[in-house]
Amino acid sequence: MDLDQLLNHTPLPPLLGLPREIRDLIYGELLEHGSVSIASGVTATPAIDNGTKTPNLGQSIREENPVRHPFRSRSTWTQCLRDFSLASDQVDLFSIEDTYLCTVDSQTVDIFLTYQLAPIDHDALVSNSPRLNLQIMHVCRQTYNEAREIFYGKNIFKFRSDFRIPTALHFLKDRSPESLACIHSLELGVLEDNGLDDRKDHYPLRCEPGGLKLRMASDYYPKLCAMLGSPSMHLRRLRLVVETHSMFPPLLTGFGAIEPALAFEKAWPVPPPVWLGPLLDTKNLDSIVLYWFSSRPLIRRFATAATEIRNQMLKPLTAYETVKSKTFERTAIMFRVRMFWPDSRYGAELEGYRDSSVQYNKDVEDTEWQDRDSRPEQIEEDQRLDELMETIVPNQKENGDCMQGFGQGTVCFCELNAL
After folding, report:
1. pLDDT in the model for residue 157
2. Does residue 73 contact residue 194 with C-beta atoms inside 8 Å?
3. With contact defined as beta carbons under 8 Å apart, do 393 and 409 qualify?
4. Residue 277 CB: number of other CB atoms within 10 A?
5. 400-404: which pairs have CB atoms within 8 A and are 24 or more residues apart?
6. pTM for the whole structure
7. Higher pLDDT, 82 or 249
8. For helices 164-173 and 220-228, what crossing angle results, to 10°?
9. Sign of dihedral through CA atoms 38, 43, 46, 50?
10. pLDDT digits (tens, 9 = 90+) for 172-196
11. Domain of life here (predicted)?
12. Comparing C-alpha atoms, which of 195, 103, 126, 113 is closest to residue 162?
């Protein structure tokens, strides 16, 4: 290239000079991460009464749950001190002999929290935080408006850590109406337990004896459901992960077969989930993926809940699909069941598991099952189940340390689609 050609050479156009399609590809390379996990962090702890035997308890809570970036523009909320002893990964903070956490006083000590990006590795909270490349959204107003459609619309926002319900609520509440409308995919974890008292921190506040409550949800849960179902939010895909901890009845003998599990559940019935009601107000979804882990067989309960979720939350059928829905295949729920059990010689370590395919028809209250086959789509489902179980139950391939209190239990899985 001679001097004249060099002087007359047209430089590459700036970002906004590129076609919108090209800019979207650039935004996608920077902002599409598949999933973005949101967790909580402690912003402040008040002085804790000397009644606690754990030294520097407030400082320990802050160090275990640090807020890694400034939070001036983020909403905060409070959880009582006793809630931290209920959180799954907070047990080591507290002395076993610390009776202060069981007193009324511990319910009046408020810990302040906010939401933040979850670290990849909890053992390296600072260095392993994922990079979201959000700087591109700070260039100018136009790039912000364009890039947020990609960031909020192309990622699944996950809320699975401790205090997941208030974390999700305050994260969504802080989004602008325009950003909220761009969020199409969420993964929400809920944890229900029948070993909870009547404190205001759980939802619902009261239930029948033996009934299951959502742990540490209080009044946050109905507010979250109202937001998910509001016209300002255009949610299309929901992945719901339910963990059910039941303190009784005792472990099932001969665990692993569907027939005795269904008979066991019939003999020890569990009330339907009361917390499902507010969630059913979320309408017109394209798909719902439902994972339900339980420490006792709850196959029938899962089937009836999945039927209600499909009938009320998915996008309405067209006239042609309504005619098709009258067939048994459309009214039935097809789902997978994995039953896992411990080896008595090794305590919590898993001995194995058994997969089955189940078909449930609410209209005739009929349940059919068969052992898992090896079709490609079911092999893919197995892989997804394996990945999710590693975060909740013991890993069968390693040492099997029991997590979240699951040693024997059931996981049910189904994928519900509007079409």
Report:
1. 96
2. no
3. yes
4. 13
5. 400/346, 400/348, 400/349, 400/350, 401/348, 402/348, 403/88, 404/88, 404/243, 404/245
6. 0.81
7. 82
8. 50
9. positive
10. 999 999 999 999 999 999 998 876 6
11. Eukaryota
12. 113
